[in-house]
Amino acid sequence: MGNVIIGASMSLDGFMNDRRGDVNRLYPDLEALRRTEMLQEEIRTTGAVVMGRRAYDMGEGDLTDYEYQVPIFVLTHTVPEQVVKGENDRLTVTFVTDGIESAIEKAKAAAGDKHVMVVGGANTAQQCLRAGLVDEIHIGIVPVLFGEGLRFFFVQSS
Fold first, then answer.
1. DSSP designation for 49
2. Does residue 155 have a pLDDT over 60?
3. Is 130 helix (H, G, I), strand (E, B) or coil?
4. All domains of the chain, ordered by start, with CATH?
5. What is the mean pLDDT of residues 40-66?
6. Single pTM value for the model
7. Computed from CA positions of residues 117, 123, 125, 129, in that sequence, does the dihedral angle turn out positive or negative?
């Protein structure tokens, strides 16, 4: 069985997006990132992806062009009437409304011996961490400063 891995990019000051929720400065050249050996290896060893609904909705275009051509499990409160982003024989989209534990369980079953990647947002990653479901965290630190926004690691004052 593979590991559950959070894959994320983060600013130097610890944010996953800026105060407006924008992530574009974290991915200035997405095409170049897709060509890196690191991401290619991650893609080869991933059997399923878990993401939040906001990340799913932010994705542009047809999912059949998505780098991870594996089953995708979208954590959400409500299921859309139809999947408009496309599926194929490798990539399917399943909306999971009964919590992060269920999403990870379904993704593990679909992934078989490969890894489950948790991508696309601090909220989903934080839910996985709180539930103790994460085996590894892969963070790419991007040389930008946001100053404010959504932190990857939520720090609660005592």
1. E
2. no
3. helix
4. 4-146 (3.40.430.10)
5. 83
6. 0.86
7. negative
